[in-house]
Amino acid sequence: MKIINKILVLFFAILLNANTAFSAEKWDMALAYGASNFHSANATEFAKNVSDKSGGKLSIVTHPGGSLYKGGEIFRAVRTGQAQIGERFMSALGKEDPLLEIDSQPFLASSYGDAMKLYKASKPEIVKGLDAKGLVFYTLCHGQHKGFIVRKK
User: Which of 144, 137, 143 is nearest to 122 (CA)?
Assistant: First the structure.
């Protein structure tokens, strides 16, 4: 059985490199998904809002579809300052910290309400773990979807 999507809680995590991000006027935002994907569309809206709210003092250029860094490279790129900001499916970062996979455990949360409770309970430790790596956890996008896909015999 191959699990293609073990999505319980989708999220939109923005990781900032605390050492270089605040001095930048233009930030490059690495996105793993294509421009029409829900996550990339949110990132584009976020970037527009940042530019508007900062009066143009800070602009974020989104790079969807892995065009700046592939999905598996985004965490490292932000951590090392190669990208100022990035979005990544949190569960994909389980090798960095197993706690980051908590939102994808099947049947742990079965509704948006349960997902919010799980988020609130786990957020302090997630923030602490990312802080130890010099990163800032910015935001999360909930989704209660999960899926197991199996091959018929």
Answer: 137
Name the pLDDT band for 149 (thresholds 50, 70, 90): low
For 18-28, write each residue's pLDDT tens digit: 344 454 489 99
Residue 24 region, left (φ>0) first, then alpha (ψ -120 to 50), else beta? beta
* Domains parsed from the chain with CATH numbers: 14-137 (3.40.190.170)
> Six-digit token pair at 41?
């569309």
What is residue 64's three-state secondary structure?
Answer: coil
- Which residues pair with residue 63 across a beta bridge? 30
* Tokens found for residue 117: 């409770």
Q: What gap in Å lies between CA 49 and CA 56, rounded to an integer?
A: 10
pLDDT in tens, 51-96: 999 999 999 999 999 999 999 999 999 999 999 999 988 888 889 8
Q: Answer yes or no: are the C-beta atoms of 10 and 115 closer than 8 Å.
A: no
Task: Scan for tokens 């790129």, then name that residue.
Answer: 77
Take residue 116 and report the two structure tokens written for it. 């919010």
Name which of 60, 63, 65 is nearest 50 in CA terms. Answer: 60
Distance CA 39, CA 33 (A): 7
